[in-house]
Write a structure and sequence with these properties.
This protein has 104 residues and is of the alpha+beta class. The protein has one domain (13-99). The protein is 30% helix and 30% strand. The chain is built from 2 helices and 5 strands. 3% of the residues are buried.
């Protein structure tokens, strides 16, 4: 995943003690960036200021950070295998466009 042009509008509480991460951030994303996700409101359950929000718990170490968002997203795909196939086809389409020169 590449993250570019990120703007953080709400601070979370994060602590690092002896290279151990502990804390929570509140992540807000516009709905258009969640079109690939089946039922995004199950994970991003709060709406405010044009964003869907969720809390993300941080854990692990600086060298091996952990978070609880990925397992929740994976669970959505387990509940909707068709959406997972759609995501795979979308990724494959992007790969083909890169490999063969885009839309023609």
């Amino acid at each position: 995943i590449d993250i570019k042009d990120i703007a953080i509008e709400e601070k979370g509480t994060i602590s690092i003690d002896r290279r151990v991460l502990h804390g929570m951030i509140t992540l807000g994303v516009t709905r258009e960036y969640l079109d690939w996700l089946p039922n995004p409101e199950e994970v991003f359950s709060r709406r405010q200021s044009g964003y869907l929000w969720t809390n993300v718990r941080l854990s692990g170490t600086i060298d091996e950070p952990g978070q609880d968002l990925s397992p929740r997203i994976i669970e959505l795909f387990k509940q909707s295998p068709g959406a997972y196939l759609g995501l795979l086809f979308r990724q494959f389409e992007g790969w083909l466009k890169k490999a063969f020169g885009g839309d023609r």
